[in-house]
Amino acid sequence: MVEVNVRDEGFTVLSGGVEPVADLVFVHGIQGHPENTWTYSGNEIEPIRPGRGLAKLFSRKKQTEGVSSNEGSHLFWPRDLLAKDFPNSRVLTYGYDSQVSKFFKGPANQSGILSHGESLMRALEVQRRGCRQRPIIFLVHSLGGIILKQALFRSRNAMEEDQDLRDIYQSTYAIIFFGTPHRGSSYAQMGVLARDIAVAAGFDARDTLLRSLKPDAEMLSLLRQEFARMLYDRAFKIYSFQEGQGFKGTYSLSRKIVDDDSSRLDDAREGRDFINANHIMMCRYRDKNDEGYNKVKGVVSKYVDEIQTQVAKELDRHEQERKLLSEQAAKEQAKLDLERESLAKEICQSLRTARMNERVGEVTTAHTHTFDWVFTKPQTGFLDWLHSNRSLFWITGKPGSGKSTLMKYLLNDSRTREALSKQGRPILSTPAFFFHARGVETEKAFDGLLRSIIFQLLSDIPRLVDSVAEIYWSCLDENSICPWTIPQLEKALDNIRQQQIEGCICIFIDALDEYSGRSEDIARFVKRLAAPMDTSDNQKLVVRVCASSRPWNTFTSLLSETPSFTIQDWTKEDIRKFATDRLEGCNRDNTSFIVDNITDRAEGVFLWVALVLDELWQPLCDGKPIEDVRSLLSGLPTDLPEFYKRMMENVPKEDRPILMSMLELVLCFEYSDGEETEFPTFCLAVELMQRSPLTIKEVSLKAADDERRQCEVERRIRACSGGLLEVAQSGNGPRVQFVHQTVKSFMGDAQNSSLLNGKSTRDIAIAGIERMMRLMILLIAQMDSTQEWKGIDQAHYGAEVGFVEPSCPKNFPHFHYPVICEFILWVLRLECAFETESPSIMHDFHVAIRTQCGGNWLDTWWSAVAHGQPTLGSENNIVHGSLKPSSFLEFATQVELITFSEKEISREISRNPEMPRSPKLFGFDPNLALEVDVLSDRGHLMDTFYRDDREADEDSGEDSSEENQDPDGSENRLPITAMHLALAIACSSSLDTSDRAISHLEMLAILVEGGGNANVLNYRNYWSHREGDATERSAIHYLLSSRYDRWKPFHPPEYEMNRTLSRCITAFLDHGADPNAVDSNGVSILEIALPIYPSALAELMLERGAQVTPKLLSKSGSPLGYADGILNESRWRRPECYTPAARVIARKHNPHWADQEEDKQDSEQEQMLQQDTGNILSTVGGYLANLAASVKRRL
Asked: Strands 427-429 and 503-510, how do they pair?
């Protein structure tokens, strides 16, 4: 046992124990010592000599003086015996000043029982920090028992919030008393006498401590009562050892210091025993065989065993509870994980786009044993980047040099993850997005990139769903559809990056140069994506980005400081390996010169190598002489465009028409709005190209014929495209595309138009769209067989997107609305991508559908439309189910064929120039009030407008929630003109879908030009009126206020939305709209336009007569800050440009107006004088003329 220096005051830890289950705490009594009281010395077997009793009573010195080495041993049994017998317990001893007199050590401690109890409690609290609730067994001698009672009393009554102090009382398991005077001690009288002697001798002595030891003193009585309550409350284990012998000393004091009545508690739960020793020696033992020690040990052992049993039970109970809680937690976690997983799948479904992540699979897989240098040659810097903390790496290279193949290789190679993991973080996900300029819109657009990355992250790490759930729920519409916008997607991705989860995400983004937007924007985004969200070292989730692109100036400038390598600098041996392996299949000798030639001329462009090998393959297989092959090889151009030119020139003349037709279809698909055309449709169109007009009136759409047709077309592509086109496999089946993005660029080069019969790619694409429109017209006649045809995605036009089964007439039971929808979508592509129309094809469509379906075909069409729901799944159009079309033009405007409708109106006007602008628009009156179900329209219009002045007085605050409304009730069917409805549609268009908003504005302008009332001032919002807003506004008021979004103001001025809005407002002004109209709150149109719109729009209003109002001026008369730029121009600083009230204020800022007004007044007076003079002269002249005539008659 290691020697421990016992402190006179405070706690000393004698043994820390091994995984202790209990604290054994020793507290000495009056005139005691934390070590002496419990220590046996050999001389103490003798009686105390006469005359030394008082000295012994008053002394705290260790009782070792005068002890010879052979008379006994020094035994501090709490440390030397008990700690060894109970290694699973911590042993502590506590000391405090309990002397009657200090004698030669200074003044006596003036503390009483209250202060000693407080000190014991607080000192023990400090010792138990870190082991709260461990059971305590107190071993207390004499006065120590009373001090302990006070400490427990104080601990019990500690404040609720002071749990550390209350722990002592709550953790007390047992108390072993040694001669504790529960009812006082008669020897206290001797203490009082001794105190008097000490004071008479000139020393200080204590009074309060001894006074408390008088028999049945008030303090002891109070503590005894409180302790009884504590026993009842906590049921401590208590054991009292009583003195077996009296104190033998001077003055014949042979009685026990603490008599038996005082040293017991008389509690039924109390255990009692005698130790055959006096008050001092009852807690000092010779050795481990001492009877007294064995009694104490037995009691302590009993309590420790009980504690161990209790602890074991408690541990078992805790373990059971832990298991139960763990199981419950596991169930809750499993439930939460399922909910998260379900929500993640739901959100992922909302993020999914056409051909999402299919491009990665389409990219050519790296040839065997190529690209190993990325990991084996440190000079590339890639492996060092994986091991470093750098966030971005850039791979650049020529077109066709294999960047996409390398990116796919890095994405799938296990060495990438292994190197990343050496940073010490788990690799959570490696999402990838490969831009694809030849793919659908989302494969080359920014929102497609964001959707794909978030989709992959949520799929790999479902717990990230918490970071995007709120955004997802906030943007759900009433149909539980989430129309994600780019700001929402960016916010979701930022939230993911900020998550405090340990791990690494490495994102691979290929072909930045194939992004459809500005290259600068995508480069800055990549840098921002790779930048840490937290600049400190506390970020747990690390995002790394590896990107690739061509070495355009924008990328070179913005990514110049990024670790990078140029791919063609490292692929020479890869090209050699690829060429060698490919030529082995020819079974020809002496091909090494071909490999050397190709390797030297390739300059790192794998695509050129593949094309060259394709050119050489057949001659080599056919056994042509090597010299001929050598000659062929030397004649092949090294430049890719020149190679493409050669490939087209080599297409046989008889196959050129079919090649042009295929190019038409491929290019028209390139301009589609993100929808992928089914391969059977492509094949049917190609087949029809090769048939005579007499044989194309009917085609077979059976599955067997489809398979035959597809096989034939694939062969025709290989035979007639010269290698420029390929059939690529995707998740939705085969698709035809250019073999590389460089082919599309080659086609778009004006220098190559001669190869395309002098046509531009725009002309070719338009021809392809018109070809598809005519194909749909052909299929109208075969609607009985199109319903099962795979060339139309039947699921795309199901009930979930707003269609129901139509009510077909008996004479035509096979009306198939998806064919109509497909035709409309192709027309929309023509209008949206090229801003043109094809009136002849539209006429043929109208004739075909009337011929096939009858004159009432619109009734059949409309029966398939679920009212109030969006139907066509295009981003550019929506069918509104409130107004059934009554004419073909009305049908065209409803499905938003804007260009056709506008041109048709113009053609009608030109055919009848003398016809006034009738409110009747060719059988369609824009001002006719119709009964419209606004409740069903609320979903897609958001805000519905109506004209009904009585409504302002009829609203009585009734519950207007949809749940309490009768869908068929009269309150939901209101008189709404087509103009109102068009205005509502235009004002509710999302700013994020600008194409749709622009088309709605254009349609509104068409209605105004067709006779719609442009000067109606009492447009009012039905739903907002029910919520307390009864403001009436003009149409221009609504257009300006609804189009504004303070987060996305309309800039720059040339923005297409501004031009369209200006054209729409011009149409209103041209047809009678008042530029100075004010709403029912007194707000003018100019007051809305000036603060938020470009100056061009404000100038338009001023040019049309809009006047400046007082609200646009400061007190000094100068224009407010947002208006001073335009209103301070001289042409608008004229009095006539201001309302009368505004002129009064503006004169302060325009003092020259006074001179102008005086000059104007003088000019007006002069004009009046001249006019009066003229009148007078005229009158006089007339009089004189009359007089002369009269005189002449008389003569």
From this structure: parallel
What's the CA gap between 499 and 488, in Å, rounded?
17
How many helices (H) and strands (E) are present in the chain, helices listed first?
48, 22
Nearest Cα to Cα of residue 943 among 996, 1047, 1020: 1020
Q: How far is 1059 from 9, CA to CA, in rounded Å? A: 91
Intra-chain end-to-end CA distance of the chain, in Å:
168
359: three-class secondary structure by DSSP = helix
Q: With cut-offs at 50, 70 and 90, classify the pLDDT of residue 296.
A: very high
Measured distance CA(283)–CA(285) in Å, rounded: 7
Containing 1173, the helix (H) or strand (E) segment is helix 1152-1194
CA distances from 682 to 438, 670, 795, 832 (A): 16, 13, 19, 22
Backbone angles phi, psi at 735, to 5 degrees: -150, 145
DSSP designation for 283: G
Q: Mention every residue, 6+ apart, whose C-beta is less than 8 A from residue 233.
A: 156
Element (H, E) at 252: none
Highest-confidence segment of 172-181, 691-700, 861-870: 172-181
- What's the average model confidence in pLDDT over 955-978? 43
With CA atoms as reference, report the closest residue to 677 among 791, 755, 769: 791
Rounded to the nearest 5 degrees, what angle is found at the Cα of 41, between the Cα atoms of 38 and 45? 105
Tell me which residue of 170, 177, 176, 173 sits closest to 310, measured CA to CA: 173
β-bridge partners, 862: none
Q: What is the CA radius of gyration of the chain?
A: 50
Work out the burial of residue 240: count CB atoms within 10 Å of its CB; fewer than 13 is exposed, 13-18 middle, 19 or more buried. buried
Number of Cα atoms under 13 Å in the Cβ half of residue 818:
20
Choice among 406-410, 731-735, 1117-1121 with the minimum mean pLDDT? 731-735
Q: Encoding tokens for residue 1165? A: 């007076």
Q: Could you tell me which of 987, 978, 1043 has the C-alpha nearest to residue 1007?
A: 978
Contact predicate 997/1026, CB 8 Å: no
**How far, in Å, are 46, 574, 595 from residue 592 at the CA level?**
116, 15, 5
Helices 626-635 & 606-621, crossing angle to 10 degrees? 150
Residue (of 345, 29, 61) closest to 213 by Cα position: 29
Work out whether strand 270-275 and strand 136-141 pair parallel, antiparallel, or are unpaired.
Answer: unpaired
Helix (H/G/I), strand (E/B), else coil: 939: helix
- Please report the beta strands in 875-947, taking only residues with DSSP state E, as ranges in sequence order: 929-933, 945-946
Does residue 341 have a pLDDT over 70? yes
Identity (one letter) of the amino acid at 898?
I
- pTM (two decimals): 0.55
Selection from 582, 572, 576 nearest residue 620 by Cα: 582
Q: Please tell me the distance from the alpha carbon of residue 1037 to that of residue 983, in angstroms, as a whole number.
A: 11
Nearest to 23 by CA among 183, 132, 157, 159: 132
Q: How far apart are CA 515 and CA 1063, in angstroms?
A: 31
Q: What is the pLDDT of residues 491-539, one digit of tens each?
A: 999 999 988 889 999 999 999 999 988 899 999 999 999 888 776 667 7
User: Who wins on pLDDT, 703 or 676?
Assistant: 703
DSSP 735: E
Band of residue 991 on the pLDDT scale cut at 50, 70, 90: very low
Strand ranges in 261-418 using DSSP code E only, listed in sequence order: 270-275, 392-396
Identity of the residue numbered 1007: L
pLDDT reading at 84 higher than 70: yes
Contact between residue 943 and residue 929 where contact means Cβ atoms under 8 Å apart: no
Which stretches of 747-901 are assigned E, i.e. beta strand? Answer: none
Alpha helices in 553-625 (DSSP H): 553-558, 572-583, 592-602, 606-621
**HEC string of 128-191?**
CCCCCCCCEEEEEECHHHHHHHHHHHHHHCCCCCCHHHHHHHHHEEEEEEECCCCCCCCCHHHH
